Structures are given as C-alpha cells and as structure tokens.
Amino acid sequence: MKSTLHTLLFAAVLGVVCSTLLVTANLFTAPYQEANRKADQVRNYLAALDVPIPENASASDLIAIFERTIRPVRQGGLERYEYRPEGADAPQAVAVAFAGPGVWGPIEGVLALEPDMARIRGIRFFKQEETPGLGGEIATEGFLKRFNEKQIVAADGTPGFRVRKPGAADGPNEVDGITGATMTSERVGTMLDALAKRIRED
Amino acid sequence: MPDYLQSKAGGCGGLCGGKCGSTMHDGVIRNNPIIHQVLGVCSALAVTGKLENALVMGAALVFVSAMSNAFVSLLRHQMPRRIRMIVEVAIIATFVILFDQLLKAFYWDMSKQLGPYVGLIITNCIVMGRAEAFATQNPPLLSIVDGVANGIGYMIILALIAIFRELLGAGTLLGYTVLSTSWYAPNLLMALAPGAFFTAGFLIWIINALRGGTGLPADKKREDS
Questions:
Q1: Which of B83, B91, B188 is facing A133, going by the closest CB pair?
Q2: CB B142 within 8 A of CB B20
Q3: Which of A171, B177, B179, B220 has the fewest C-beta atoms under 10 angstroms from its C-beta?
Q4: Tell me, what's the pLDDT at B217?
C-alpha cells in the first residue's frame, strides 16, 4: 500500500514538473514559431510573384513587405493575391494557392500569373513530402525554372496545363516532368490542370 | 586503458571518482553507440544526407542524453522500480520536446529539414539505453559525462557518414560546393537512404578491422583482459 502511494505520488509530481516546464517553454517560443511559420509562407508567395526582396530580410521584414504590397481578393471560389507595388494603380501580378495529393503526402503551392491571367510569372511548392532526390526535386530551382515563359492556356485557347514525360513537352502550356518521378509529375500536372481551368472559368 | 586517459581522469577525478576519463573514452570510442552497440542507426541513416543536419542532430543528442542522464541519476533512489521505464521516457521526452521547440523558434530552416527526426530522439535507443544502463546506477556528474560522451560518439559517426554522403551525393560540404557539377555527376544513391547503409556498413567494417576484432563481446573480453 505504501509503495503504491509512493509510485502514484512520484508519477504525479514528475508529470506536473515536466508539463510545467514544457508549457513555459511553449509560451516563450510560440511567438517566434508563429512568425517563422508565417514568414515561410509569405516568402513563397513573394518568390512566386517575383517581388524584389532585400537580401537577408528577416521574418518580420518579409511579413511587412507582404502586407504593404499584396492584397487578397476573393473572386469566384478562389482567393487571389494581387501584387501592387507602391505607386502602381493596377495589379502587376496575381497569385493563387493550390493543393492536392502527392505520392507520400499533400502537396501545397502557389502559382503566380501575369495580369492577363494566362502567362505564368512564377511557381513555388511550399509543402511537399515527395521522395528526396526524385519527386522532391519539384521544389528545386531546376524544376521551377521550367515554368518560365509558360502559360495556363493551350495554343488554341483552351485552358489547361500538362506536366509531360521528360523531353516530351512542346506546347506553351506544357512542361517536362522529372525523370524517375512519374507519379509526382502526374499529380502535380493534375493539380495545375484543375487550377488552370478554375482560374479561366472566372 | 591507455596512459593519456589516466592523466585525464586525474583532472576531474575529484568530482567523478576518477572514472571521468574512462567513461568518456567508453562512450566516444571503445563502446561507441553506433559502431559498437549498433544503436541509434535509424536516425543515422535518415539525417546524414547533409553534414549540417548531422551536426545539429548530434548536438540534440548530446543535450538530451546529458540532461536525461542527469535527472534519471538524481532521481535514481526515489524512482519506484515498477514505473522506472515510464519515468525515464517522460524525462527524455521533456528534453526532446524542449529542444524541438527551441529549434522551431530560432533555427526554423533546420527544423524543417530534420522534420520528425528530432521528435524521434525520444525513441532513440542510445538515450534510453544510457539512462537505463548507466544513469540508474551512477552519480549525476558521472552520468552527465556518460551522456555527453555517447552523444559525441553518435555525432562523430553521423558526421563521418554525412561527409561521405554530402560530398558524393551532392558535391558539397556544409553547403559549399567542393566537387563542381560541371565535371562531377552527383551520385543519387549516396543522397538516398541506401547510401547511408553502405557508408555505415563500410565504416563499421573498417573500424572493427583496425581494432583487430569482430566487435563481438568475446573479443571485448579478450581486449579487456
């Protein structure tokens, strides 16, 4: 009986001490973590929109730039982020977020278009868990650069986008996929195709 | 035990009963957790793609293993035997979560790259093993030395594997280009998990061959006698 009481008491005290320590640590670090999380997302939006960012900009700098130049606008079922540099009266670019299933987990990203809502200005994947070195390459500069000068409308004017087998892309709305990552390439293609159609519908 | 360790043991012998040097030597070299005990291999394979990741992971292990050893050792006389393991895990988990929170607050990029592996230190056999096998039977200061030693032993092996993998897999070291991709084609196999298997395997083989034994307990006894 006495040993049971000792065990219970020991467990209770240990539990209280450990959780107090963790709650304190969490209270202390939560604002920093939140700023990091937000800056991470903001950095991707700014990069896709090709907004000039000073080198070594801190998390709060990025958030400040984002809040100054980017305005969310709800249109149709889509949230659009319009980039308007100070002094400009019309949006210079528009970003739209997208999401969908990848091979190992969800893929989330942002696609930025020129004001004509057809030509691609930039793209970023800010969340992906694809195979490192294969599907994970979608987040690298090499793959993102393939979207330069592309558009979300085919040559004949029908909206849509395709990620083709490596080397097979030839239309203005097609890019090469990644060698060895057919599944990831296909899923990214499906995601962007659906997004292209939704954007053009509005 | 080599002579130089005897003298080192003398340095902090007053605090740790003269066992400081030998405990350090045990953890880092003779009883290295990865090479000799083959513990903690999961994370050694997972986070050794880049040298920087390996070093941060090693630092995390030094911190967690030293702190949890210290507290397990402090509580070793009060700890009820029946819930010993649960108490150890609770203490380890507290420090792991603490480290993870700090990483997320002040070293966000690294936290993103290490992903779930920092949290998985809770289940790392090295930390649990040292708490159970060493800290429950030794005084706090010596237990801290043991925790640090095993953490450093782990970090050294991780760094060695990571140097090979980052160099051959990406042509860089700590992010700086060493082998230019203009003439070196990065070896994808080294960047992926199999590369870590091969590197760790070769490393264990080479070190055991240099020691002149198979690394099995029978050999250890022979060395000791």
A1: B188
A2: yes
A3: B177
A4: 53
Residue A160 amino acid letter: G
Number of CB pairs, chain A paired with chain B, less than 8 A apart: 55
- Residues on chain B bordering chain A, Cβ-to-Cβ distance under 8 angstroms: 49, 78-80, 82-83, 86-87, 90-91, 93-94, 97-98, 101-102, 104-106, 108, 112, 188, 191-192
Alpha-helical (H) ranges within chain B are 3-11, 13-16, 20-25, 41-46, 51-74, 84-106, 108-114, 125-130, 140-170, 188-191, 193-211, 217-224
Test A22 with B191 for CB contact under 8 angstroms: no
Chain segment A60-94, per-residue pLDDT in tens: 888 888 888 888 888 777 888 999 888 778 888 99
The stretch B170-179 carries a mean pLDDT of 83
d(CA B47, CA A57): 28
Q: Which of B75, B211, B86 is nearest to B143 (CA)?
A: B75
Beta carbons of A14 and B102 less than 8 Å apart: no
Across the interface, do B188 and A33 touch by the CB < 8 Å criterion? no
pTM metric for this prediction: 0.75
A76 token code pair: 């149709």
Model confidence at B13: pLDDT above 50: no
Residues of chain B in contact with residue A33, where contact means CB-CB under 8 angstroms, are: 101, 104-105
Cα B6 off chain centre by: 24
Q: How far is B191 from chain A (nearest CA, A)?
A: 7
- Does residue A105 register a pLDDT over 60? yes
Across the interface, whether the CB atoms of A21 and B49 are under 8 A apart is answered no
Read off the pLDDT of residues A120-167 as tens digits, 9 standing for 90 and up: 999 999 888 887 778 888 988 889 999 988 999 988 888 999 999 888
- ipTM of this model? 0.74
Residues 6+ apart with CB under 8 A from A36: A59, B104, B105, B108
Which of chain B's residues have a Cβ under 8 Å away from the Cβ of A133?
Answer: 188, 191-192
Predicted confidence at residue B216, as pLDDT, reads 56
Q: Does A16 touch chain B (CB under 8 A)?
A: no
Distance from CA of A11 to the nearest CA of B (A): 7
Q: Are A163 and A188 in contact (CB under 8 A)?
A: yes
Q: Which two tokens stand for residue A63?
A: 């958030």
Q: Residue A11 — very low, low, confident or very high, per pLDDT cuts 50/70/90?
A: very high
